[in-house]
Amino acid sequence: MSDNPLLTITDLIDFPSIKPEHVVPGMKALIEDAQEALKTSNAKETPATWDAVITPLEQRTLKLSRAWGAVSHLMSVCDEPKLREAYNEALPIVTQFWIGLSQSELSEKYKAIKESNEFKTLSATRQRIINEELKDFMLAGAFLPAKRKEQLKTIKETLAKESQKFSENLLDATNAYGLLVEDKSDLAGIPDDDIASFKEAAQAAGQEGYRITLQVPHYLAVMQYAQNRALRETLYKAYVTRASELDFDGRFNNNDVMRHIVQLRETEAKLLDFKNYGEVSLATKMANSPQEVIAFLRDLAKRSLPQAKNDMKEVKQFARDTLQIDDPQSWDLPFASEKLRQARYSYSDQEVKQYFTLPNVFNGLFGLVQTLFSIRIVPDTAPVWHPDVKFFRIENDKGEKVAQFYMDLYARPNKRGGAWMDNDRTRNRLYGPLQTPVAYLVCNFAKPVGDKPALLTHDDVLTLFHEFGHGLHHMLSRIEEPAASGINGVEWDAVECPSQFMENFAWDWTVLQNLTGHVKTGEKLPRALFDKMLAAKNFQSAMAMVRQLEFGLFDMLLHTEFDPEKDSILELLAEVRKEVAVTEQPAYNRFPNSFSHIFAGGYAAGYYSYKWAEVMSSDAFSLFEETGILNPETGKKWLDEVLAVGSSRPAIDSFIAFRGRAPKIDALLRHSGIKG
Ligand code: ZN
User: Fold this and answer.
1) Burial readout 149-159 (b: 16 or more C-beta within 10 A, e: otherwise)
2) Closest Cα partner for 439 from 22, 69, 21?
3) What is the pTM (predicted TM-score) of this model?
4) Which of 266, 467, 480, 641 is catalytic?
5) Which of 225, 285, 363, 617 lies in the 20 to 30 Å Cα band around 386?
6) How far is the CA of 529 from the CAs of 513, 533, 535, in angstroms?
7) Distance from residue 589's CA to the centre of ligand 1 (Å)
8) Quick one: average pLDDT of 539-544?
């Protein structure tokens, strides 16, 4: 038996015993083992059946991915040089294995299983796993004739390079800019912290005075707070012309890169026999067709526009009357909006924080999910990577273990920022007895000081509820096929639904009563303060909504109804804006040149997903509003029809089974304070 803890994982992972020197040999051994299994699965003499091809491969690859998951997790929460070195050495080897697997003969084996007599006898879940897997193989070009396969490969490689080029141009353009302000009085209105950061930037560049860069915190500080109008205009212009022909004499110009990316995607779609790239993107998503997405976005726009126009009118009026800006422009709006928000809804995060002590929030959150889903959350023990980490088990109403999770809540050095849920183990019976899910829930809250409990901002509470929503989706799954259990395989535009769904509870008055208690007096959150928080949340929400719809519509039209040989990207955006935007922009605005989500990220023909999932989560929550926020019957339905089923069926089927009908946009509008 090896003494490498990565090779001997049976139940819970023994984190303290994993050392950097275990990583490379451990991963190599597990990959070798998985390679062996892959070879057997792919062998000619291996019959094309689930048990002969898929089960043995899953048994070995799951060991590999769980061990690698533990190493990646440690990298995220306790990064140190030796571990990082080992991680970086192992990373290409692991990546190479998965690429090799996707390009192997396995696609043919899956196809043979699909065409075999056995297929009809498989469970619906297994049939769906095979169908989805085949779709992925198809999109990767596995079933194309050799010549087209080669073409597709070249296109994908070129696309990756062009996306990289897009990011580099944007990054270089952003970093190349620095506005030196010598006189501090020119910065009037900007918070001291931000001014200190300008000063640091100047020092770092060997300059005297204040250097304002185009990094988002600098940009926002000026746009929201600088009283100096000319300064706002200068910075606005620099920001919205980044990586265009108007910026640095076109040295970082993304114009040709964008056109080329759209062309390549269109060619990819044609090679795969799709009409356009929008269809390729949607092949694995919940939305059925680009037309459905476009109609969805237009419908939301139509309902939000009147109020968005009103938001706009109000802020302009305020700018004129109160701030004496006669002709408010794009560089005045964030400034005027911030002043208007302060005038109407000022309250401080500090004030709110006093009501959200960590023990109260935990009691409230655990109490909520215990009531809704008939579960119990109890403290449990496990070897952990840091003394602050807590470990819990979830039991069902019979007292049986359903799942376990780690909670690593506080920020500390060597821990990645942000918050996330990750799965350690997915529910399965691959090795005989049932293995229940294990999840990591990681946040970066401020650590408590002295013997006081930690205090959370309301944003922190939302984050906790969001990640806990992902966690419940993973942990309360009843599906025992790992590929379809929990969040695995859930459509990309639906996977944020259970997490956003949970956020709604943190905006509910009844739930907040159970969640809050003033750190000194124990008093619940006062209604007046809650009303202010809610009003501030919905301040200019219609304007924010149409802005998102503009991006989503532009993205989908660019990937469906746009001819990169003939049409102009800027003209397309102008048309979209004519339809859904309420702001006017100067002609020099080059927004697409910095739209990384679709040109360099994974959101091409997918930007709509944000709103899509939000509509579903709001609509799902509205059933609780109708039947009682803490109604266990509605909770059971959400558990049975959505959380428990993973991706064993399409997300739309799960939604309809829960809600009794297809999603409607009304609840999202109402929750956003839009009277559409
Ligand atoms: Zn999320």
Assistant:
1) bebbeebeebb
2) 69
3) 0.92
4) 467
5) 363
6) 13, 6, 10
7) 31
8) 96
